[in-house]
Amino acid sequence: MKVTDMGDRTEEGIRPLPLNSYTEAVDWINGLLPFGIRPGLERIELMMERLGHPERRLKFIHVAGTNGKGSSCAFLTRTLRESGYHVGTYTSPYITKFTNRFQYDEVDIPESALLEMANRVVPLVEEIAGTDLGSPTMFEVSTAIAILYFAEMCYPDVVVWETGLGGRMDVTNIVTPIVSLITNIGYDHMDVLGDTIEQIAAEKAGIIKAGVPVVSCVEQPEAITVLKNTAASKHATLYLMGEQFRYERLSVDAKEQHLHFKGPFRDMDFTIRMLGEHQCKNAAGVMMVLEVLRQYMAFLLEDEQMQDGFRTTFWAGRLEVVREAPRLVLDGAHNPEGAASLAQSLPEAFPYRKLHLMMGMLANKHHQGYLKHILPIVDTLILTEPDFRRKMDAEALYELVAELQGTEAKADLEIIVESDWRKALSLLESRTEREDLGVVTGTLYLISDVRAALLHQTDSEKGW
């Protein structure tokens, strides 16, 4: 359904009728996608004002960073749930269905509730669209719906709140959290956030609020300087990995990792089933957040329940084994830092004879840095395209690979260009023999489609 189908066009603009179904609601929200990503808080601030500031009735844990946000949100949600708390979780993009991004106690928002909340914001969107601010964007509307859902329908004890892009000017920065987490800093969304680590760090550090403690696993010295300066200027206590807390990997195999956490208040051993050392860093950052909640905010967090939470955390599309014969793994690494983690984690977690890798990307990413990490370990590279409007053509991706093939890739690397991801997936499956490993990686839009196909999820939706 197009926006223009929702009402009569008048001199004042479009006057939408009430949305009558879940499908209409999602189509209306996605119909705002052409307004793009417009950093700034003016529109969401006005929406919250008109709604009576529901965000002020909630406790948030605000999560920013280049990679690891979704996994960290999953660790936080699961451990707090195991500890007996009711938890709201707002993340993006979704893997299977639009409702994935709004969860209460790890269950998606009911379709009826999404419809009700969408109808609440329709008149606000129309009102603001008629001002100099212009129409709220798809992400702004989704964020407003999330706040309404948590504040007026399910009342969680705490909301795990993931940024969409950056931090300082991100729509989610409308809230004042009880603690913030900045996972890491890397080169991503450089067209919006800047092209240096310092610039990107400054945008991420924008979620730091006056007097609100912040935890970070950032490692680059220049990014650390930015975080320390920002935290000091806001009188916010900074807990930094490598200084106030650290972790040690005790053991690792194809199914789990055992860690020792050393923090300012106590030490603890625990286990995670998320694979890759980058997940150890994410888990350590989350453990420090939980320690802040326990130590200073009277959260009752028992060791055994926390350990159960970490051990049972799962996040789709992150080194996820979706098939054993042939052995296929999905991982949404889509930037240089993600590729570095993937290249390190694959041979460690999944011993193999040959690696066959299928990838598809969006057109606005820093792909050469990505390829420099991936090409040295790949035997067969299958280049394809996600079903998404901002996809990168497989042929254009091949041109980037060709530039690096003589210096970065294996001498006998086989490259296949197949723009249809379904045919590409069939090629990957046919080439992955018993002792080999097949990997699908790149943009989460590709991961979403492939995962739905492999797991036969017929209700899988498509969007951002």
UniProtKB/TrEMBL annotation:
Enzyme's top EC category: ligase
Mur ligase C-terminal domain mapped to chain residues: 317-443
SUPFAM superfamilies: MurD-like peptide ligases, catalytic domain, MurD-like peptide ligases, peptide-binding domain
Reaction it catalyzes: (6S)-5,6,7,8-tetrahydrofolyl-(gamma-L-Glu)(n) + L-glutamate + ATP = (6S)-5,6,7,8-tetrahydrofolyl-(gamma-L-Glu)(n+1) + ADP + phosphate + H(+)
Enzyme Commission number(s): 6.3.2.17
InterPro entries associated with the record: Folylpolyglutamate_synth, Mur-like_cat_sf, Mur_ligase_C, Mur_ligase_C_dom_sf, Mur_ligase_cen
Boundaries of every Mur ligase central domain copy: 63-289
Coiled-coil region: none
Family the UniProt entry places it in: Belongs to the folylpolyglutamate synthase family.
Record's protein name: tetrahydrofolate synthase
Native organism: Paenibacillus rhizolycopersici
